[in-house]
Amino acid sequence: MERGTEMNVAWRDERVLVTGGAGFVGRHVVRALRDRGAAEIVVPGSAGHDLRRRDQVLRLLGAAQPTLIIHLAARVGGIGANRQSPGEFFYDNLVMGAELMEAARAQGVRKFVAIGTICAYPKFAPLPFRESDLWDGYPEETNAPYGLAKKMLLVQGSAYREQYGFNSIYLLPVNLYGPGDNFDPRTSHVIPAMIRKFVEARDRAERNVVLWGTGRATREFLYVEDAAEAIVLAAERYDKPDPVNIGAGFEISIAELASKIRSGTEYSGDIEWDHTKPDGQPRRMLDTSRAADEFGFRATTSFEDGLRATIRSFEDLRA
Q1: Of 91, 121, 146, 223, which one is the catalytic site residue?
Q2: Could you read off the pLDDT of 28-65 as tens digits, one per residue?
Q3: Which of 7, 36, 112, 183 could crosslink 192 through cysteines, CB 3.0-4.6 Å?
Q4: What are 122's strand-pairing partners?
């Protein structure tokens, strides 16, 4: 049976509110929910649905009457965007999560799926990152405000579970990528940012591409369709307070990533590293065993296949 095609009877009775459902990850989550036969899926638009404002959150939940909420809406960006607007990244993500979960609790929503971030982990967490290491240090400084704001969803969910019996779960996805990603150089993450740089340098016949940092930092990447499947599986099968890593279980250096993207975009120039720019967190790789054990998730898309599809999507977008 192909991924996402199985029917779960429970979905036929669910009214699912997906904040951020029109975004990069959200579109894939909505598709996975439809494949499972969810009774009703509500994707709020940005107009009149500012999740930082309590009155608009209450109005949204009053109209939607969800039984389950998947909270994907977030203010996100790469290292540059986080360094430029740390206050906005902290406030927007903190308040959106706090207001939405409180309204969900007050309205009696059956389940709340909170999407955290790998940026919540300590800067020097041992590899692979295990959920038990989450509180053993301060996050990497360039994205700590964002990481800590998203981490408060875990704290709020745990507190609400203890006091109110509220069923909130917390997922920690690794860096995501895939077709439909954000390729805006001002706010994009590393893979779409590199793809755009190499493609534009190729088309302009530029002799070199300058990239941030040293190239020595490592990252783990998860294809967006796999991430969506993990989120829906957790919504379907997981009801415990413990946070769960969502990843692919491999590590690649930024330098090796750049080499793969240069090859995949057929750029023949040189790569130069700007050592005055930060690397971000030194290393990232997740222990993904809890997701496999608790709700049967394992990533199925190879990095090579996913990278080819992402490059092709940008080429198609430009064409």
Answers
A1: 146
A2: 999 999 999 998 999 998 777 999 999 999 999 999 99
A3: 183
A4: 139
